[in-house]
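## retry 2 of 3
previous attempt timed out at serialization; input unchanged, resubmitting
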Amino acid sequence: MTPLIFVTGGVVSSLGKGIAAASLAAILEARGLRVTMMKLDPYINVDPGTMSPFQHGEVYVTDDGAETDLDLGHYERFVNVRLSGKNSITTGKIYENVIRKERRGDYLGATVQVIPHITDEIKRCIDAATEGYDVALVEIGGTVGDIESLPFLEAIRQIRTDRGPDKALFMHLTLVPYIAAAGELKTKPTQHSVKELRSIGIQPDVLLCRSEQPLPDGERRKIASFTNVSEKAVISAVDLDNIHKIPMWLHAQGLDQIVVERLRLEDKALRSANLSEWLGVVDAAEHPIDEVTIAVVGKYVDHKDAYKSVGEALKHGGIRQRTRVQLKWLESQDIERDGAEATLAGVDGILVPGGFGDRGFEGKVLTAQYARERNVPYFGICYGMQAAVVDVARNLAGLEGANSTENDKQSPHPVIGLITEWRTQAGEVERRSEESDLGGTMRLGLQEQRLKPGTKARELYGKDVVGERHRHRYEFNNRYRTQLEDVGLVISAKSMDDLLVEMIELPHHPWFIACQAHPEFLSTPRHGHPLFVGFIRAAREHKAGGRLLKEASA
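## retry succeeded, writing output
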């Protein structure tokens, strides 16, 4: 049985359980352990694929095509592990599995109940996702006290009882607020949160106390006394200006050693953690040699997490060349209202990310046109590629009324259309139609594409075939390939069967590349991603007026 670390949260939501769990996982990995992570979410949706970005934030996609919680993005960015749909479990998925078994008669006529059937299914899913690793971290979404989280909390309580303290550790993240009027940190919310957790049979082994400033020894002792947690296991989770510092901060307080000792991992773990890569990431971020401003023109910019992976990938691209990346978030409807010139003037690069629906699409098309005509580096992702294709069709090929059928089913030139059949990475044929369910019916997951020799994309990747993750329903319409290529559009990557256009570029533009996939999902702070690194380099060159390009060629 894989030793498990269960991460719960109390007092308020959005304290950063995902980042804290990922940071601990990064330290354990740095000690030579094989680590995996998973998220248990209490909402009844089967997955977040149909949820609004304004409410839930981004939908993260794994290699196997699972639409998951954005915390899996934190996990993959911090730990060298590729996750799958097994690592993201929701209440909806659990109940769907149990009801399907009940309909088949698997329970032999028994009355199906939360205990034991729902909790047993939760435990089965945990085992399936964590088997074969040295240690696994399991984050429970929501806040202790929420009624919808109770089945998950009961399941992990049972696991601890069944397997013992050396196979299951409870880590609880709480808030220690600073009350300015009193000039004090207040420990009472943490005390009440632990009391709530203990009332359902869970005694935390470790407390991560989130606060604006380091936790003084007096407050640490007070919290330990009132919560029955060892004083050394009361960890100060102070606010930091860079999330990549968190592994070093937690390691300095001995959190990884506490875990190694409690779970008896001494024989598998290295004596010390090699955090040199993380120190390098922090050093590059804190000592930049350049700075660029990137405009991100999207549809959901009012929600800070809607483009979480895009924002992180842009910063990773900067870290790889010691460049601070300032992000200018712009609503595409503002481009429609105020014009591209007034809104985008002065930026060093423009990225148009994914999206759905016609709201703001014309603003994305105007953005692509502005970048093309002004020679500003342009990076289009998914809907950003489709907007660029529409711009080229209308303004270079003269195809008046060109559009995506997602937005105009009567378009005289549907250069982007709904694909009804395609072959997956496993070689299976999938089909969809206008009547298909919204959830899980897109082209999803990692799929390979072949890059065209002599293109900028091929140069950036440095290889002929690459795999990228997808999440979309609409594709480049092959009937317009020749017409658009005749006016200068280069199709720089296609699916392995040659049927789907994966990437486009404009060869006479300093940097104009767009892709149908979502490369942001494969970017990490330690390694970056070729497209994002290349884009930030192009933004630096644009800012310097081509000076960097001349210096590199010299």
